[in-house]
From TrEMBL:
Residues 266-292 are annotated as: Disordered. GO terms for molecular function: ABC-type transporter activity; ATP binding; ATP hydrolysis activity. Pfam families: ABC_tran, Wzt_C. GO terms for cellular component: membrane. It comes from the Bacteria. PANTHER family: TEICHOIC ACIDS EXPORT ATP-BINDING PROTEIN TAGH. Keywords: ATP-binding, Nucleotide-binding, Transport. Belongs to the ABC transporter superfamily. This is Lipopolysaccharide transport system ATP-binding protein. Residues 276-286 have a biased composition (Basic and acidic residues). InterPro entries: AAA+_ATPase, ABC_transporter-like_ATP-bd, ABC_transpr_TagH-like, Bact_Polysacc_Export_ATP-bd, P-loop_NTPase, Wzt_C.
């Protein structure tokens, strides 16, 4: 049986919130006068983590994830409950913690490693490996206060992984690194995991959780709602994150009482609803399980509309091939992206376009209705309205994506955009079990191997 390295039993953490700074002073002098409100950052959290496990913590901002990591690392003390940690912890918490800004990068490495219990001779054996991994060049001998956020996280992560930790804790800090460095970090996390190091980290990336983690935990308002396999946890997290406010309490109560199974279409809870007098419509039922596409009201975009040059894009949406409006899709199925175009000027050589992209703006793929600038629709009169549809296959790995829409043509000048809208529509691709595909696009790869 694997050794338990982290054990929490009924951990709670509350903070006192004061309306005015003077209230804190007055409360200290007059003990009978309570001038604070209590904010419960964590509520009765209990779990165990075994040696060698990689566990991802997910949840909206303010859910209590960072507070929990700080308690595990010892930088915060719990209000109540019991905590047991076995082994050396190396932590990369919020950006700016752990290093003295007045020290140089080299001095901070020695300071950090010494705080982890390493002797100077051990540090000197590893210093070159740390500097090589961080790859910040001559800046290592400059004060840390002069570093960019990317340089800081490079040095901090390099130091954290080279102190021979039993437990590695990472709290979102890698999000500020560039893509190449993130890949380098995740490769090293995989190597640490394979060597028996326990890894505990916070991330908002579904792909990272499902590719790296053995298990995941979902937190919301200080409570541990779900502790299960990464696929189910990510699915429930996204449903909760994008659910309308009036449905969130239902989802929370279902997760607390029944776990992830309560949100699956074949669960006992779902069957009881189907047999009872539940008044929810089919779209509500679909939003509680993983097997069907559906429309999630809370998944809303904030479009960026460019100035019109003779056309306006209206009513962008995705439908199934049967015409049902959806924004939660099943990987591998075909859908239609539709929008209307109302023309306010007479224009020529009109082409319709779309782009699918990541939330950070990286364009993954798109389509334009004609390959040549002068081979579109010959002419469209003012006042005419068109509907355009793009049938596409959802060849994307689980996550949330955005769509753009554009209309190009000629309006008394050069060929250009007549109308353009960024982030017209958001959609989510549901998680899949035992996913082998990595990154964002599913290229339908088939692997084989043989002995030479």
């Amino acid at each position: 049986m694997s050794e338990t390295v982290i054990k929490l039993d009924g951990i709670s953490k509350s903070f006192h919130i004061y309306d005015k700074p003077i209230d804190r002073l007055l409360e200290n002098f007059f003990s009978k006068s309570q001038r604070h409100r209590k904010f419960e950052a964590l509520k009765n959290v209990s779990f165990e983590i075994k040696k060698g496990e990689t566990v991802g913590l997910v949840g909206a901002n303010g859910a209590g994830k960072s507070t929990l990591l700080q308690i595990i690392c010892g930088t915060l003390t719990q209000t109540s409950g019991e905590l047991g940690v076995s082994g050396r912890i190396s932590a990369l918490l919020e950006l700016g913690s752990g290093f003295n800004p007045e020290f140089t990068g080299r001095e901070n490495i020695y300071f950090f490693a010494a705080m982890q219990g390493m002797k100077k001779t051990e540090i000197e054996r590893k210093i070159n490996d740390i500097l090589s991994f961080a790859d910040i060049g001559e800046f290592v001998d400059q004060p840390v206060k002069t570093y960019s956020s990317g340089m800081y996280v490079r040095l901090a992560f390099a130091a954290a992984i080279h102190v021979e930790p039993d437990i590695l804790v990472v709290d979102e800090a890698l999000a500020v690194g560039d893509e190449a460095f993130q890949n380098k970090c995740y490769s090293r996390i995989n190597a640490l995991r394979d060597s028996g190091v326990t890894v505990l980290f916070v991330t908002h990336s579904p792909q990272t959780v499902m590719s790296l983690c053995d298990r995941a935990m979902l937190f919301d308002h200080g409570e541990l709602l779900l502790d299960d396999n990464p696929k189910d946890v990510i699915s429930c997290y996204q449903k909760l994150l994008y659910a309308p406010d009036e449905k969130k309490s239902l989802l929370r109560s279902l997760l607390l009482s029944e776990g992830a199974s309560a949100l699956k279409s074949d669960s006992k809870v779902q069957k009881q609803r189907a047999q009872g007098n539940d008044k929810r419509d089919k779209r509500d039922e679909a939003s509680l399980n993983d097997n069907d596409e559906y429309f999630e009201e809370g998944l809303k975009s904030q479009p960026v509309v460019y100035e019109s040059d003779g056309a306006e894009i209206l009513n962008p949406h995705i439908t199934t091939l049967d015409g049902d409006k959806v924004n939660v899709l099943i990987r591998g199925k075909e859908y239609k992206y539709n929008y209307n175009v109302k023309f306010s000027s007479s224009v020529t050589m009109v082409r319709f376009a779309m782009v699918i992209k990541m939330l950070n703006g990286t364009e993954l793929g798109g389509y334009i209705s004609s390959h040549d600038a002068y081979s579109g629709i010959d002419s469209i009169s003012s006042g005419v309205e068109y509907t355009t549809s793009f049938k596409f296959k959802a060849s994307l790995n689980p996550g949330v994506y955005a769509l753009n829409a554009g209309v190009r043509g000629i309006n008394q000048g050069d060929e250009d955009f007549l109308a353009r809208v960024l982030d017209t529509y958001l959609f989510r691709v549901l998680p899949v079990k035992e996913q082998c595909e990595t990154c964002y696009i599913d290229f339908n790869v088939e692997q084989s191997h043989s002995i030479n």
